[in-house]
TrEMBL record:
Cofactor binding mode and count: Binds 1 NAD(+) per subunit.
Names of the cofactor(s): NAD(+)
Record's keyword terms, sorted: Glycosidase, Hydrolase, Manganese, Metal-binding, NAD
Designated name of the protein: 6-phospho-alpha-glucosidase
Amino acid sequence: MSKELKPQSIVIAGGGSTFTPEIILMLLDNAETLPIRTLKLYDNDPERQKIVADAVEIILSERAPHIEYLATTDPKEAFTDIDFVMAHIRVGKYAMREQDEKIPLKYGVIGQETCGPGGIAYGMRSIGGVLELVDYMERYSPDAWMLNYSNPAAIVAEATRKLRPNSKILNICDMPIGLESRMAKVLGLESRKEMDVRYYGLNHFGWWTDIHDKNGNDLMPKLKEYISKHGFSLEGLGKDPKENDPSWMDTYRKAKDVYQLDPYTLPNTYLKYYFFPDEAAEHSDPNFTRANEVMAGREKRVFGECMRITEMKTAKDTKLEVGAHASYIVDLARAIAYNSHERMLLIVPNNGSIVNFDPTAMVEIPCIVGSNGPEPLTQGEIPRFQKGLMEQQVAVEKLVVEAWVEKSYQKLWQAFATSKIIPNAKVAKDILDNMIEANKDFWPELH
Ligand code: NAD
Ligand code: G6P
Ligand code: MN
């Protein structure tokens, strides 16, 4: 690319996220194709953000002193004069993720960050937090775009579609990208970008229907053969490092069973929670769920390293790595800033792309992204199997947003009762009542 690229001003909302340092390193790594003039961190928890922000200040002073830097909890300072908001907030933080995972388990139901009752509870917390960010952005930088990957992305996307229909917000997920990187390894390709994919579904609820290389060769047969044996685990190639968290390895392996349900497509790993919820619950330790694993693992590692950098006053020898998997965020920002027409999976209003599906549903499909935003690619008609599953799940997501808007206990109970993961309306009510109590500082009061 030419040297005349206009440098961008970016605020990372959720500055205290465990993902912030590696995303900053990733942005620096991509500075040639996405030059940056200003970088700001914004969070509503000053103590948590400071741990990350102090280390980022040292990293930037050593590696990119020309970038203007600010970490703040003041929305006006944070959102003034910016081109992009990169949003990854977690309303309620890990303490509430732990509740989302542990409350359902008391009733024998799997508790998960974005799926089933845990995802619904998290959605009820996230909607207000993300809308607040959109409103700050529009007040202080009306031309900016928000690239949102705060979860649960499906519910957040439905909320922004319904409540901020004209806002410049794009919702994106890294799971298909992560799985495509695994596919590329299986195929012996350098990069996932050597593949052209067709994919459709809802966020954390979708299927690949077609994968070709740039010469037009069909890559599906080889992938199907591998995935039918190993799922998305790379153990079949001897390439999955032992230090991968065991819960993720289980998920990668389990895709082999999910695949059997529809051997014409390749499934997103999250479908395991919908097809095998009992097994997922049985395999959970009710005293040590994924939130505990993350707090003991990623949070400890990243924050420990940030504190070490701050103490040593240098990041020259840091173990923090470039979050290469997060480079899709740069791809997306670049597509908007410089009209690159990159093809990417985004969560967008269906609007006819899946011909036989609700036009108002937020679906995850390939789009061509340019300065005017995404142009979704039509996916045609989908089979009854996927259509039925998606209709049930989209009803859950829409009911949650309606429940939040109308402060409706009835609709939220309906959302719980409609979720494929929850066995019956009685269990739905028990979990809901427990979650109302746990979330009283975050949810609207329901009546
Ligand atoms: P984290 O708890 O470490 O960080 C989240 C930060 O958000 C915290 O510092 C918290 O104080 C802050 N925050 C909470 N509410 C806020 C508000 N209203 N305004 C401003 N800041 C607020 O969480 P994490 O594990 O690093 O994940 C961050 C987010 O990214 C989560 O929502 C996670 O689900 C999401 N995520 C999404 C994808 C994807 O595929 N879409 C991938 C990875 C992570
Ligand atoms: C994937 C998903 C995200 C999710 C994350 C959970 O990246 O796409 O939406 O937040 O996994 O990872 P964690 O390590 O926090 O359990
Ligand atoms: Mn995701």
